[in-house]
Amino acid sequence: MNDMDKTITFSIHEEDRDAQRKVLLRNVYEALSERGYNPIDQIVEYILTEEPTYITNYKNARSMVRRIDRYELLSAMLKEYLGL
Length: 84
What we know:
- By secondary structure, the protein is an all-alpha fold.
- The chain has one domain.
- Helices cover 61% and strands 0% of the residues.
- The chain has four helices and no strands.
- α1 packs across α2 (39-49).
- The longest helix has 21 residues, at 14-34.
- The mean pLDDT is 90.
């Protein structure tokens, strides 16, 4: 079997996904702050309900937050909180 017959796999490491989530969340946080919202409350409500209207469209924040997998985000937050 030559190299052309092999399937190449691609995987984003957890560190890369975590870094991407942090950048996206920071941008969403800043957009909410600039619009005068309490960003923590708004983001928590979005995470709990998946209702995108908790996040402003300003600076494309709503689109950014929807690119974050909520399960992965909650898992990462719990691991961070527990120091795992």
